[in-house]
Amino acid sequence: MGNLMAGKSVVLTGASTGLGRAGMKKLSDEGASIIAVSRTASTLQAAVDEINAAGGKVIAVPADLSDDAQVGRVIDAAITEFGHLDVVINNAGVGYGYRAVRPNSMLALHEAPLDEWDHVMGINLGSVVYACRRALPIMIEQGSGSIVNVASILGMVGHQDAHAYTTAKGAIINLTRSLAKAYGPMNVRANTLAPGYIDTPMIAEYTEYLNAAETKDTWGCPMGRTGRPEEIADAMLYLASDMSTYVNGAVLAVDGGYTATS
Question: Does this model's pTM top 0.85?
Answer without folding.
Answer: yes
